[in-house]
């Protein structure tokens, strides 16, 4: 990778990692479903007036938007609103890698390799370690069970969006910015409906009437930096380089998420939570690098 592209990759990873701190700050002032609606209103408008619709069936764009955009972020925002630590959420959400493997096997008939199975088992051990930490005494950062499983469900929704994305890529070349923009159109109504049903008209009006400059910066960060700019630059890197050169960089997202949550939100993990975190990251590393290490081992030792 060229120095310019390495710099772009670093910007993306930091933007996505810090994204979880921004979400935590956002749901403190704005109800989670309303925040989701505002985010994707800014993702879709006015961009769809200037960016042509992807040349793929509309139902694929809709499924992409409802899984990767609505399902993932509705559950993630709600989980963080209900007390899920932002840093730990950034890590647990990476379970999407393993759900994607399982769904690819079930629906796309892609083979599951031994390193992926080992990686899943190791990461599962780490997730259990994290989830059980709430029963330990002297834990400064509590990981509540219900929000924990909400984030896991969010990662499953992300994985379904990944499967849809794989199907879209098989239909031909698709512009990432176009897909993100038009895909962002479909979660707006579900978010607004959820906001009216679960958060209520009074809370919505109160949030909008007290909308501050800080709230505007949060919404613009989530929509412009994290979604439009982040995914567009990521698509540029994936189109320019082999996947194996770019994809491992996503392992840095939860590390940035955990570190930024520690710095800005004072989320301090216990020893057990740190152990669980390292186990999950180790499982993710096995999933990403395991096959190549195994191939090199076979090439050397036959």
From TrEMBL:
Recorded hits in SUPFAM superfamilies, A to Z, give: Multidrug resistance efflux transporter EmrE
Q: Which UniProt key words apply to this protein? A: Membrane, Transmembrane, Transmembrane helix
Q: Where are the transmembrane segments?
A: 7-27, 33-51, 58-80, 86-108, 117-136, 142-164, 176-198, 218-239, 246-265, 271-290
Specify the EamA domain's residue ranges.
Answer: 6-130, 148-288
Pfam families documented for this protein: EamA (PF00892)
Q: Where in the cell is it found?
A: Membrane
Membrane as a keyword of this entry, yes or no, is yes
Topological relation to the membrane, as annotated: Multi-pass membrane protein
Q: Which Gene3D superfamilies match?
A: 1.10.3730.20
InterPro entries cross-referenced by the UniProt entry: AA-Vitamin_Transporters, EamA_dom, EmrE-like
GO annotation, cellular component aspect: membrane
Extract the PANTHER family matched here. Answer: AMINO-ACID METABOLITE EFFLUX PUMP-RELATED, INNER MEMBRANE TRANSPORTER
Q: What is this protein called?
A: EamA domain-containing protein
């Amino acid at each position: 990778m060229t120095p310019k592209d390495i710099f772009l990759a670093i910007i993306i990873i930091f933007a996505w990692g810090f994204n979880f701190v921004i979400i935590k700050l956002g749901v403190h002032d704005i109800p989670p479903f309303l925040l989701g609606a505002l985010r994707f209103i800014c993702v879709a408008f006015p961009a769809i007036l200037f960016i042509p619709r992807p040349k793929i069936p509309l139902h694929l764009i809709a499924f992409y938007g409802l899984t990767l955009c609505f399902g993932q972020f509705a559950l993630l925002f709600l989980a963080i609103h209900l007390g899920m630590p932002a840093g730990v959420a950034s890590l647990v959400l990476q379970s999407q890698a393993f759900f994607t493997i399982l769904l690819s096997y079930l629906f796309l008939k892609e083979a599951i390799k031994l390193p992926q199975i080992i990686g899943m088992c190791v990461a599962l051990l780490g997730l259990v370690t994290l989830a059980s930490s709430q029963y330990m005494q002297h834990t400064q950062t509590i990981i509540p069970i219900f929000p924990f499983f909400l984030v896991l469900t969010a990662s499953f929704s992300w994985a379904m969006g990944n499967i849809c994305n794989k199907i879209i890529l098989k239909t031909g070349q698709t512009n990432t910015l176009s897909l993100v923009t038009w895909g962002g159109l479909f979660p707006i109504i579900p978010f607004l409906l959820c906001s009216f049903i679960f958060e209520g008209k009074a809370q919505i009006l109160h949030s909008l009437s007290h909308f501050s400059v800080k709230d505007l910066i949060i919404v613009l960060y989530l929509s412009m930096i994290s979604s439009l700019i982040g995914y567009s630059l990521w698509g540029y890197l994936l189109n320019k380089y082999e996947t194996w050169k770019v994809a491992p960089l996503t392992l840095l997202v939860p590390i940035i998420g955990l570190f930024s949550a520690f710095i800005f939100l004072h989320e301090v993990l216990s020893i057990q939570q740190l152990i669980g975190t390292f186990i999950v990251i180790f499982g993710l590393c096995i999933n990403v690098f395991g096959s190549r290490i195994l191939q090199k081992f076979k090439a050397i030792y036959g």
